[in-house]
Amino acid sequence: MKVMTVPINKVNSLFEAIDYFEQIINIATNAILRIDFENASFVRNHYLSIIGMGLEIVKNRDIQIQLILPRRQTVLISMRKIGFLSAFMKEQDAKDTFKTMIRYTNIPLANYDLQLQEFHQYFIQQFTGKVANLSPKLLNKILQKILELFSNVFRHSESALGLFCSGQFYPSNEKFNFTIVDNGVTIKTNVNRYLFKQFIKNRSTTEKLFGKKFQSLRGDEAIQWALQDTHSTTGKGGLGLSLLMDFIKISEGSIEIISNDGYYSIKDGIEVSKTLESSFEGTLISIELNTQSNQYYFLQEEHKNANS
Prior knowledge:
Elements: E1 3-7, E2 10-11, H1 14-25, E3 32-36, E4 42-43, H2 48-59, E5 65-68, H3 73-81, E6 101-107, H4 112-127, H5 136-157, E7 163-170, E8 175-182, H6 187-202, H7 205-209, H8 219-226, H9 242-251, E9 254-267, E10 270-290, H10 300-307
Parallel strand pairs: 1-3, 2-4, 3-5
Antiparallel strand pairs: 6-7, 7-8, 8-10, 9-10
Helix pairs in contact: 1-2, 4-5, 6-8
């Protein structure tokens, strides 16, 4: 059987991780897939959820997977701490003594309720105490919105493989990064399906007579539509990112969303929305929260209450 090797030397950006993902899922069905981390100099662990989803996709095609461990000890220990290696090979996890990792996790769609609840509790445990620049009320709100985000990804995607997540605190940079990804129904498909139904339902007699046509949204337009709190394709709320995005803008964090051919991001206060040349069949949300201790953030209502 032919051995196909995907060398992974560095994972420092979202699009690098997506490139490795594409190489993995496009592997020949009758091959052995070898993921070679041997010369990996740096791996941002919150992007391992993307690579992990690719590996789960090919596992479902009965493709045999082999992992070659990194020679660099810092990379090896970090990947052991986050639990990525043990998910695909017989490799012992390293202890996450300072709780800087959001463990690599795959929550499948089947019977996900209990697993999602357990993951929520774990996420809260890892998150609490790491972010000292938020008032208790704002911290609770941020956590609530993050947990809603996990639930909403499940509800909208309908992916049999479920949801993949990984994350990491970087104490020296005072950053918290995490990435959620699925390979289910894309935002573009979900939104246009919903808007088409509304279009058919609400057309006037004149519009029917003259054959008014439905104008579908581009991928990036569909993402922006879904980000509005009042917009929902299920009647149960949208992605739930409004408060998170406000905090990201104010604190100079970042968010990147890719779904189908749509891309949306906020970085350094700059909003970017565009159509990608290639399509990502699923939805990916990557968030960086700025946890700098020299800034303190609170809800506007707290400021009003303090002055009343």
